[in-house]
Description:
InterPro entries: EF-Ts_dimer_sf, Transl_elong_EFTs/EF1B, Transl_elong_EFTs/EF1B_dimer, Transl_elong_Ts_CS, UBA-like_sf
Main location: cytoplasm
Order of helices and strands: HHHEEHHHEEHEEEHHHEEHE
Protein name: Elongation factor Ts
Region (Involved in Mg(2+) ion dislocation from EF-Tu): 84-87
Subcellular location: Cytoplasm
Number of strands: 10
Amino acid sequence: MANYTTSDIKDLRAKTGAGLMDVKKALEEAEGDFEKALEIIRLKGIKSLSKREGRSASAGLVLSSIADQGDGQVGVMVEVNSETDFVAKNEKFIDFANQVLAAAVESGANDLESLLSAPVEQGTVQDLVDSIASVIGEKIVVSKMVRLEAPVVTSYLHHSNPDLPPQVGVLVATDAAAAEVAHDVALHIAAYQPEYLSRESVPAEVVEKERHTLEELTRSEGKPEAALPKIVEGRLGGFFKENCLLDQPFAKDPKSTVGQIVDATKGQVLDFKRFHVGA
C-alpha cells in the first residue's frame, strides 16, 4: 500500500481541484510522493485537454476591479468558468481567476481576445488557462471581460449561493452627481437584468423586429386596423419598460423608474455591464 495519508489526499485535492479517485490513483502511482503525484495529475490533464473541448463550462465566478485613472475611474470585470461548482470554489481556481483579473487591469485589455494574449508570468493568459486546466482536470474558460471608463465606476458582486464565489457581477458608469445612487442602481441591475441602458440605446433592428411581432399579434387578436398603431406603440412601451434600465420600475421604490431616481440627482448613468455565470 502506498505511503500517504488522508491529509495528503485532502491537500492534493485542494491544490489541484482534481476528483477524489484521480487523487488517490495519482498518490498510488507516485507511491505516496506528493510532488510526483502532483506532476502525474498535471500531465494527465495536459493529455486530456483536447477531450474536454466539447464539454460545458457553466460554473465559475465573476470578479471586478475599480481603479482611479486621470480625472475618473476605470472598472474591469471578468468571468472565469469551470465545469463544476467544486472547482469554482477551489482556492487554486480562485487564485487563478484573480491572476486573470490582474492581467486584464495591468494590460489595459479592452476585449476578450486581447486579454487572452496579455502577458502573465512566463507566458500569456491563454497559457495560464491551459496550465490550470491541465492540473485541475476540467475545462477552464475565460469567457467574458469588460472595461468601463467614466468619472465614477461602481461595482457590485452578488453571491447567489453563500457557499460559492460571486455568480453575478455588475459595473455601473456614472457622472459624479449620479454616483450617490450608483450602488442601488447596481443592485437593481443584478436583480432585474436589463438588456439596454435606455430606449435610445436599443438597436433599430431590435425595435423594428419587436414592432413587427407586436403588429402581427395585435392583428391576430382582431383589433381594428385603424387602432393598430396606437396599440402597438403602447405595447412597445411595455417592451422598453421590461428591457431598458432607465424605464424599469426601481427595485427599492417601484413607484418611480430608475430614470427618475437618477434624474433626481441631476446626474446620469452613462453605461453598465452585467455578467451572470454561465449565461
